[in-house]
Amino acid sequence: MSSMTGMRDHVTAMATQPAVLGAAAILLALVVVAAAAPWFAPSDPSDLASLDLFDSHLPPSWLNGGDARYLLGTDSQGADLLSLLMYGLRTSLTVGLLAVALSVTIGLLLGLIAGYARGWADTLIMRAADIQFTFPAMLLALLIGGLARSMLPVNQQEEAAFFIVVLALGISHWPHFARLVRAAVISEAGKNYVMASRLSGRGHAGILFRHIMPNSLNPVFVLATMDIAFAIMTEATLSFLGFGMPASQPSLGTLIRVGYGYLFSGEWWIVAFPSLVLVTLVVSVNVVGDWLRDRLDPKLR
Asked: Is Membrane set as a keyword in this record (predicted)?
């Protein structure tokens, strides 16, 4: 009952802020479109038999030379740009969510251990985090991705590209979560309910996972929400540079990289629409993330 009341309070608070409500609505719409891409997309971009080179480079349907079958136009292969955007959005969102889930899992476990055990475990984990902080996240993701690819045969690298990108992004950002969780655990460990649990004979694992961890998750949720935008932007940057998703698995970054080559030839729609979707997605996530931070962080109330 209390969780339902809390959810109702959050929805009511959001309704009083039109900008946040609009961002949440846009984000929800993008998520629904991405999830339902196989059913809503006019065509399947991976089906090469459906492509017609005679339909390549068509402008959006409302411009001269456009075709009503292709609302946002086509690319150099004759693929429907709207379908590519829906599938690319699906890929980018999936990569972002899985990468953040991996970062949260690693950072949460290591942060719990560091904050509760202290001593040499704390020192080892935090020094490892400090070392990783000296590397820019983008550079570290490139390094991890390159190492992962070097261990695979050439014919398997494209198939494994999705998992390599998720792994690279997930590993590159765990220290932020580990530091956040460690600070929350240290704060919670000295409270009376933890002392009472210890006096009652409850084991360390029970205290840590049943009492301390649930009370340390609010800041993790906030950072994870905002980190999704970081992961999506980083994946797009990697794909734009040619180190992310392959052309056979289009993401927003891949579509922007391909479309950039046609920007100065007048075929602006091939790069403009993927860029617009990427900006809209990242801004929406950041606005909702900022609002969650304001709601869940008691210091900001």
From this structure: yes
- Give backbone dihedrals phi and psi of 142, rounded to 5 degrees, phi first: -65, -40
In a domain, residue 259? The reply is: yes
As given in the structure block, the two tokens for residue 214 are: 């649930």
| Digit-coded pLDDT (tens) for 3-40 | 445 555 555 666 667 888 888 899 999 999 999 988 88
Distance of alpha carbon 229 from alpha carbon 97, whole angstroms: 9
Cα→Cα distances 242→135, 235, 299, Å: 21, 10, 42
Distance between CA atoms of 23 and 27, rounded to whole angstroms?
6
Q: How far is CA 230 from CA 20, 69, 169, in A?
A: 19, 35, 9
Cα separation, 215 vs 245, whole angstroms: 37
Q: Where residue 58 falls among pLDDT bands split at 50, 70, 90?
A: confident
Alpha helix stretches (DSSP H) within the chain? 2-15, 18-35, 37-40, 81-117, 119-133, 137-150, 154-157, 161-172, 174-189, 192-199, 204-206, 218-241, 252-260, 269-296
pTM of the prediction? 0.85
How far apart are alpha carbons 238 and 215 in whole angstroms? 36
User: Number of folded domains in the chain?
Assistant: 1
Q: Quick check: is 289 in a domain?
A: no
Distance (Å, whole) CA 118 – CA 221: 24
Range of the domain at 99: 17-45+60-282
Tell me: pLDDT of 107 over 80: yes
Phi, psi at 74, each rounded to 5°? -130, 165
199 burial type by CB count under 10 A (0-12 exposed, 13-18 middle, 19+ buried): exposed
Identify the CATH number of the domain in which residue 27 sits.
Answer: 1.10.3720.10
Domain presence at residue 69: yes
In one-letter notation, the amino acid at residue 241 is: L
